[in-house]
């Protein structure tokens, strides 16, 4: 059962905010394995200070069969995801787009690590505590953005288009959007509103990338619960997706976008592993998640 409520809030150590620290820790593992290059992930995670994720990036969690903790698998899974969005943004800017919107930016450091073309403006949208923490931590680390970075501290369940436009976003210019690791944390009607707003703000040629999780009930599935219990013994109970996602039935994103004049391309996470030369595991847990789909779309 979800423990979410209307207008609930968080920082990077609590509730949905902790998921941003979790995925950044996974990017740190992928980086350490040489699969991606996000040198900011590990220091950001250590700065947040959630014990299990700090130990994860410090290689202090023992690998035992009994707990099913497999750092290599985590690293590969996050490499697939990070490469997908990195390539998407680089291709979008190569096609001439200079306006990028990273929705639910969390500890995403793309504004500091991708080779953006001159003149690119990157808008990062997330809750105020999340934005403030990443900005001040990266500043203390001496990081310099590789594009013009503009932050938009707002709740994506509220009137975020007004805040984005107030930060300088131009709805008449083409844009490239990402909603990475976000949608399951929005109520179904907020997800629809998100795509309606993106559509209204996107001229022809604009692009969008996100994941589609066809069925959130898998977080309550006994295969996932058993895995979660075993991982909890190592401290991974900090994040329980079953509590954090909205389980209600929601729109089928591919159909929803197609009906709104987006041309959508999509591949499942299992197909994406194969495309990256990685084996996708065939155990129960992996199979429960095999239908998660990465999609990118162009507004026609
Ligand atoms: N996109 C980042 C990444 O992949 O590293 C972070 C993903 S993290 C799993 C989920 C993010 O969604 C968190 O940073 C959280 O603050 C943000 N988020 C979820 N619901 C939100 C809302 N209603 N308004 C603003 N941000 C939200």
Please tell me about this protein's structure:
- This protein has about 300 residues and is α/β, with parallel strands linked by helices.
- Helix content is about 45%, strand content about 15%.
- A seven-stranded mixed sheet has the order 3-2-1-4-5-7-6, with helices on both faces.
- β1, α5 and β2 (about 120-125) form a beta-alpha-beta unit.
- α1 (about 15-30) runs antiparallel to α2 (about 40-50), α1 packs parallel to α3 and α1 (about 15-30) packs across α4.
- The longest helix is centred in the N-terminal third of the chain and has 24 residues, at about 70-95.
- The radius of gyration is 18 Å and the shape is globular.
- It starts with 14 loop residues before the first helix and ends with a strand.
- It binds S-adenosylmethionine.
In terms of topology, how is this protein built?
Blueprint: H1 15-32, H2 41-48, H3 51-57, H4 71-94, E1 99-103, H5 110-113, E2 121-126, H6 128-140, E3 148-153, H7 160-166, E4 176-179, H8 188-200, E5 207-212, H9 222-232, H10 241-244, H11 253-259, E6 262-268, H12 269-275, H13 284-288, E7 293-299
Parallel strand pairs: 1-2, 1-4, 2-3, 4-5
Antiparallel strand pairs: 5-7, 6-7
Helix pairs in contact: 1-2, 1-3, 1-4
Bound molecules: S-adenosylmethionine.
**What is the mean pLDDT?**
95
Largest sheet: 7 strands, mixed
Q: What is the structural class?
A: alpha/beta
Elements, N to C (H/E): HHHHEHEHEHEHEHHHEHHE
Total beta-strand segments: 7
Bound molecules: S-adenosylmethionine
Unreliable spans: none
Beginning-to-end CA distance, first to last residue: 39 Å
Q: What's the overall geometry?
A: globular
Strand order of the biggest β-sheet: 3-2-1-4-5-7-6
Number of helices: 13
Percent in helix = 40-55%
**Beta-strand level of the residues, as a percent range?**
5-15%
């Amino acid at each position: 059962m979800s423990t979410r409520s209307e207008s609930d809030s968080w920082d990077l150590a609590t509730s949905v905010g902790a998921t941003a620290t979790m995925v950044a820790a996974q990017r740190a593992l992928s980086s350490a394995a040489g699969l991606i290059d996000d040198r900011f992930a590990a220091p950001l995670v250590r700065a947040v200070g959630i014990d299990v994720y700090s130990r994860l990036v410090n290689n202090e969690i023992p690998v035992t069969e009994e707990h099913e903790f497999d750092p290599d698998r985590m690293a590969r899974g996050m490499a697939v995801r990070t490469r997908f969005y990195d390539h998407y943004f680089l291709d979008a800017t190569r096609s001439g787009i200079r306006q990028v919107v990273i929705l639910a930016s969390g500890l995403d450091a793309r504004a500091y690590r991708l080779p953006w073309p001159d003149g690119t403006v990157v808008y990062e949208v997330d809750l105020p505590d999340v934005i403030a923490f990443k900005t001040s931590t990266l500043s203390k680390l001496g990081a310099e953005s590789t594009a013009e970075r503009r932050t938009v501290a707002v709740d994506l369940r509220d009137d975020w288009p007004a805040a984005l436009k107030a930060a300088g976003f131009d709805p008449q210019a083409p844009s490239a959007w990402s909603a990475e690791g976000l949608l399951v944390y929005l109520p179904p009607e907020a997800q629809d509103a998100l795509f309606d707003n993106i559509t209204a703000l996107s001229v022809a040629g604009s692009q969008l990338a996100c994941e589609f999780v066809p069925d959130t009930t898998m977080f309550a599935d006994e295969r996932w619960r058993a895995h979660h219990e075993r991982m909890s013994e190592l401290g991974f109970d900090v994040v329980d997706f079953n509590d954090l996602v909205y389980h209600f039935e929601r729109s089928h994103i591919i159909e929803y976008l197609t009906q709104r004049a987006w041309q959508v391309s999509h591949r499942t996470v299992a197909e994406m592993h194969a495309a990256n030369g990685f084996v996708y595991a065939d155990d129960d847990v992996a199979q429960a998640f095999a239908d998660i789909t990465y999609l990118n779309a162009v507004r026609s």
